[in-house]
Amino acid sequence: MVKHLRKIVQVLWGFISNGYIKGFLPGGPLLYSGPLKRFCVPGINCHSCPGALMSCPVGAVQSLLSGRDRRFPFYVVGYLSAIGLFLGRFICGWLCLFGLIQELLYKIPTPKVHIPKKIDMPLRYLKYTVLVILVIFLPLFYRGEYGIGETFFCKYLCPAGTLEGGVPLVVFNDAMHASIGWLFRWKVLILILFILSSIFIYRPFCKYICPLGAFYSLFQRISLLRMSVDKSTCINCGSCSNVCGMDVDPHITPDNAECIRCGECMKVCPTRSLKFTRTGKTEKRINKQGSSTCGED
After folding, report:
1. Which end of the chain has fewer CB atoms within 10 angstroms, the N or the C?
2. For the chain, how many structural domains are there in total?
């Protein structure tokens, strides 16, 4: 059970955050609108999912910025910043439902695609562009004829929202069939592209598009939860690098912005040199001569 602890936590969180059973019963999904909807989940989880009990933080930011009075999302930004300061991208690896879906798709036995670094590294910056342009800039400054903006990321791009919210609402609600148009088809096309790419590439949405992952990554090197390597015991075998789906070298850059804190590298480390700490420093170890050493990142 411990071996699959992360998967168990991911699955349980998926059920907990989407535990509005009534939304999945016959007669069409009724979106939960109780007091819990005022709060945001820490990861991406569409608030329009029939079972969603809380809101998506990315959607909440856009909704406030795109409103007529352009309210700054102090609560949401403060909430996400606190999570980032404590955990970095830990949420990405342990609680994100769409991340779990991508991981399960990647387990389908097919030849995997390794994107060359000269292409992969520039693509990683796309998620920061999505965060700045689609989540902040356009909702804040674009205004329609009624003086209200749009939630650009949710409306035009987010595949998690299409999978968790858009598709179930259309499938189970006959009244929405007539509203299917080019936008829904466009979102379904994007979803299909991410589903197919997830079979061959590990977490492509997380690597290249997710604005929430981009936000959390800003706190990776200063978060309370850190990953450290004990250089006095590390043998540079490369096992941690080989198992990392995010293509990080944990023994070289343990607090890399792309690390999702999944802990898979720790499982394969033959000398147990990698660990989570609260300070970024390893515990002191006593060598054979009796002197103490302390590795840092």
Report:
1. N
2. 2
| Domain-embedded: residue 1 | no
- pTM assigned to the model: 0.89
**Angle at which helices 5-17 and 97-106 pack, to 10 degrees?**
130
CA gap 52, 100 in Å, rounded: 17
Judge if 108 and 246 occupy the same domain. Answer: no
| Lookup: tokens for 177 | 């069939």
- Detail the DSSP E strand segments found in the chain: 226-229, 274-277, 285-286, 292-293
Report mean pLDDT in 10-residue bins for the chain, 297 residues. Answer: 82 94 78 93 93 95 91 94 96 95 96 94 97 96 86 96 90 75 93 98 97 97 93 94 95 94 94 85 41 39
Burial category of 110 from C-beta neighbours within 10 Å (exposed 0-12, middle 13-18, buried 19 and up) = exposed
234-239: list long-range contacts, CB under 8 Å, 24+ apart.
Answer: 234/271, 234/273, 234/295, 235/270, 235/271, 235/273, 237/270, 239/265, 239/268, 239/269, 239/270
Radius of gyration, alpha carbons of the chain: 21
